[in-house]
Here is the input.
Amino acid sequence: MNLDINQARLSAELAKLATFSEAPAPAVTRILYTKQDLEARAYFKGLCLEAGLELREDALGNTFVRWTGSDPDLPAVATGSHIDAIPHAGMYDGTVGVLGGLEAIRALKLAGFKPKRSIELILFTAEEPTRFGVGCLGSRVMSGVLDTNGLAKLKDSEGKTPDEARQEAGFSDNLADVRLTEGFYYAFVELHIEQMPQLEQKNIPIGMVTAIAAPATLHIALEGAGGHAGAVLMPERKDALVCGAEIAQTIESVALTTGSIDSVATVGIFDIHPRAVNSIPSKVFMTVDVRDTDLGRRDSMVEAIKDAVWTISAERKLKATVETLNADPPASCAREITEATELASREFGLRTLPMVSRAYHDALFMARICPTGMIFIPCKDGVSHRPDEYSKPEDIERGVKVLGSVLARLSQA
Ligand code: HGY
Ligand code: MN
Ligand code: MN
Here is the structure.
């Protein structure tokens, strides 16, 4: 089935969505439940209503856009991604899977396709960890990985819980209803930019994700003595910054010495207190993002990092705490979906490349409740989470075409 993707309209919609941002263009910052997030959601919902689709939102703001099939009682085929963006990010991470999913549905309708299984597009709430420290909040709760007690333990920088923040944003339904049972969906497929350079370097337009790497997040707090920068002699110091710096260096060497290129660890936040020119830093707060495609290696990195915190802080006589916010297993993608992607790509004469996703996505958690797959498209130099993130309209069009064909195939299964 040939699908006529309206590339110009999709590019314009992606550009419009990017204007709902706290940061000036070309950067995009769109944090959970902020004015910009809610405006972007309203814009997206307007497009879905224009396309004649049915909308529902759950208690966290996960938004479900359904094209009812001829057999509406069968578990639907789902697609979707996120529109929230970390500070000073780009305009394609997540949004290609949301607006591209809508365009795939519009193209299928235009082609006169009639789905047997309903097709449901999902805008997931809070894929990024910015506000509450843990990513994929919406899909974690949908898949049962995070329950309402776990949700209540999370706090943002103002001490608000997700429950308080979502009510302020106008989502007041019952949190217990967010959870979806296994089998609720027949399958889930997410279209996303690759966020690495392989597809572009190999000049292959479609990536078939076979597995999604295992992410973990640690919070480390260090407390020393602080004091006067001129008066405290070096041997007497308990300098939290220098202790944190030694730990950060050790974190880097832990990831460099596992023997695998698939091991990564990042200190993304490093706050010091009191931040005064002539005061010895007394406190440090740092976050560590640890990932690997292999769960065992990821877990040994986490253990090695914790050991380093205890050893280095003890040597320097500081107090240290380590909190593990999440330590998720990797996900394998379903053969049925990679095969459907291969067939669809061949139909359009497009080469494919099987690959692992080093970034996590809502697909990591949807894989807990249904057969799940991801379709990647190239992005310039593999850059992401930066304002210069870019994907060519023709690459986005090819990804949407393959997505549409995969959704059609699965909805007839
Ligand atoms: O961090 C990630 O992998 C995703 O972009 N949230
Ligand atoms: Mn991201
Ligand atoms: Mn993403």
The two ends are 16 Å apart (CA to CA).
